[in-house]
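[Meeting: bench + compute handoff]

Bench side (C.D.) handed over the final construct sequence. Compute side (W.E.) agreed to return the predicted structure before the next meeting so the bench team could plan truncations. Sequence as handed over:
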Amino acid sequence: MILDHAGRLLLRDGFQNLNLDELAKAIEYSKGTIYLHFKTKEDLVLAIATRVARERADLFERASAFSGKTRERMRAIGFASCHFAVIHPDYFNLEMLLKSPSFWEKASMERQRTFGLQAAKLFHCVNSIAQQAVIQQDLPPDTRSQDVTLSLIATTIGTHIMIMQPEIQVLCAIDEPIAAVRRNQDILCDGWNWKPLAKDWNYRATDRRIKNEVFPEAKWFKPG
């Protein structure tokens, strides 16, 4: 109950203006009750972020079970990341807040550990597919899967954050932000020489399969 109400206030007011007195009034408990569960405001916000991050990890795990070539399976992960961004458009701004040392050091070690477990799930989902791609020679044999994983995660998160800025959308002539994210993912995979390359494979057909088989609830997807 605390997390439900706090999440709504956080989205409405932002972290700096998140008022625990108002939260206590909304849940009809004292502020002291909130502090019984969360040592600091940072602890509370990290718990909110962890709950949302768990949902993202669940989406990635669903996507990783998609049947296809390794690059198609990674494309399913990319689809999952975009689906998550549509469901939680404000999460990436919150995630940037979490990376701030001034925020992180005020959250408890237990909250940090719980959040870290969700991040580890994400990394594992991506890295396990990259490892298989190296083994199956869909990626060059001297490729480090961790390098591929890091670049994909960084590119995806960075693009999501950038395209939320209206001025970036104008400067880069972006009409469809989600399409821009997926395009950058494709460019990066081609750069790693991850086969089949985009020019050699009908990934639109793959996307239709991903939508139908894994994410039928993804109303944002526009079949090509």
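W.E. noted at the follow-up: The radius of gyration is 19 Å. C.D. will use this when planning the next construct.
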